[in-house]
Input
Amino acid sequence: MKDVHPFASDQSAPSILVVGDLQTRRLAMPWPKMADIAFCDARDLDTQLAESETDLVVSLLIDGDFDAMEIARRLERLKFPGRYRILCQPVASQTIILAELYDAAPSVDVDFLIIE
Output
């Protein structure tokens, strides 16, 4: 029997988990229509990932009482094999922030999605 990772997914459509206050901005965001998109609070991230087959986690750089570093560390601890993307406007210190995220969560595929 093949060992299936709990986060494995069907490649036909990405399964996206949006973390944080982005749910209130859902109508303004250009989410792809073919994607399976779920929204959760940062406090529920562990539970949501355990209960779904998520390919991509999206959050803001800083959102209320959590930030991207906290999310990246949690994804590292959970051994999340998907991608983590941080929505933000252009940031002057983008390279420094990414280096810190890579150090804190070396196995997480993390990058920015820049909104201009």
